[in-house]
Amino acid sequence: MAASGSGPRVLLLNGPNLNLLGSRDPHQYGSVTLAEVERRVQALGAELGAGVECAQSNHEGELVEHVHRARHLDGVVFNPGAFAHYSIALRDAIDAVEVPCVEVHISNVYAREEFRHTSVTAPVSEGYIAGCGPAGYELGLRAVLTRIGQRRPR
Ligand code: DQA
Asked: According to the model, what pLDDT value does residue 61 have?
């Protein structure tokens, strides 16, 4: 769904398997669907004067293209899913667009398998939220809005 209004515009982007939220491993990810997550983040955006566009893809190249399109927006809240752990292409895309990106993981990846302890995308992101459940996306929106116009040098 497209953002509207004259305030900041943020892309809420979700990677592989996150379309299955609500039914996928509720112990890790809760029982809220992706549609509900998107609705909540858009409602918060409306409250805070920001427009929120939402996208999800299971394909690395499509996610890269969504990140490229975010060049024309003000910020990104991104759960790259498993790609966070190894996609150099996504890391480079985030680095290239120079738009603040806050990485979100629903689960506490550090309490899980060791391969989830590495994020190749986090070092090029402005912030990182993990283990807060689906509410992490709303925290991510609040965080990215504070970063707009003040990207830290890396
Ligand atoms: C996840 C954590 C990843 O390790 C996993 O591959 C996902 C979801 C999370 O939101 O907790 O797909 O990004």
From this structure: 98
Regarding the beta carbon of 17 and ligand 1, being less than 6 Å apart is answered: yes
Are 141 and 126 in contact by the 8 Å Cβ rule? The answer is: no
- Token pair of 46 as six digits: 């409306």
- What is the CA(52)–ligand 1 centre distance, in A? 22
**Where does the chain have alpha helices with state H?**
26-29, 34-48, 60-69, 88-97, 135-147
Tally DSSP H helices, then E strands, for the chain.
Answer: 5, 5
Annotated domain spans of the chain: 9-151
Give the distance, in angstroms, between the CA of residue 134 and the centroid of all CA atoms in the same chain. 11
The two three-digit tokens of residue 141, written as one number = 């929106």
Q: Report the nearest atom of ligand 1 relative to the CA of 112.
A: 4
For residue range 94-131, list pLDDT tens digits in order: 999 999 999 999 999 999 999 999 999 999 999 999 99
pTM, rounded to two decimals: 0.94
Fold entry, domain 9-151:
Rossmann fold (3.40.50)
CA atoms 130, 4, 7, 152: torsion sign: positive
